[in-house]
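Quick illustration, no need to memorize.
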Amino acid sequence: MGGIVSPCLIVVKAQGIRYNLAMSLDENWGLIGHEWAVNLLRGHLANGRLRHAYLLTGPQGVGRRTLALRVAQGLNCPQPAAPGIPCGSCHTCQRIERMQHPDLMVIQAEEGSTTLKVDQIRTLQSGLALAPYEATYKIALLLRFEEANPNAANALLKTLEEPPRQVILFVTAQDTEALLPTIVSRCETLRLRPLALETVSDGLQQKWGLPPEQARLLAHISTGRPGYALHLHQNPDALENRQNYLDDHQRLLAASRVERFQYAEQLTKDKNTLKETLTIWMSLWRDILLSISGASTPLTNIDHVSEIQRIAEKIALETAQSMLQTFIQTFERLDHNTNTRLTVEVFMLDLPKIS
């Protein structure tokens, strides 16, 4: 199977951010927000009462993976700053942070695929059956498990029912409804939610030294997800791509059907890019709906207020509501593996023409 680079490490293309752990972590493990979850898990570490499996739910970029890695560091750090607080700077902590430790097994849908397969779970089970190479505990981190096919989900049940000794499993997912109830019932569930925008902005300034205006912008764009905000800060290309997608959207509003179909042809060549583009466009239409309705809810794309207001002045509330429903239907069709090209062309026909 592709993607294996060591006997005990399933390598994946990790999305999100990497923390710089050159200095010792603080009592909140260097995270922005989620103090309640950190306090709970620190208590489990300090008291030796860790569960055999944790399910971390919430939107991507909210901090699920980082929280799991902190527990892995806390379990295996040879020189913790205090009980439940890993040092963050030793060789063990650094390798876990990079997801390159031989006793950390990370698994998710392989690059280019949106499905986690049963063969990956079987490879994981084979690795977990071995004793730790050098750490005290082996950690299994299963990312975005809502992408697991039914066979993979059922295969994981055996490990959850009879976990090997010195193994802790972490499963991340959007929500519990996307998983088998039998998987949910065998894990301790921690539900992570987006943070207040002020919390994210203040955290970016205090922990990462960002200027106030940049921190405020990233807090809004990330809709309160600190991991995604840091990803945007540390990956300028991601911000540039977002700007390009929004520029494309503005151009397409006035484009002909032929131009829209040409764009659809290019967009459907990469499904990940397609979904990223539609997600950003959907956030803009949410802002348009909020602007039309006069809601007090904060806008996401605060750097595109003039464009939002311009469109809001030219369409009716019903049009904005219909467009958001179109986005939802388009994502559902893409998730059900309908004809991608046809799905995007239908979407382009539904996109209002605004000169």
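The chain has 15 helices and seven strands.
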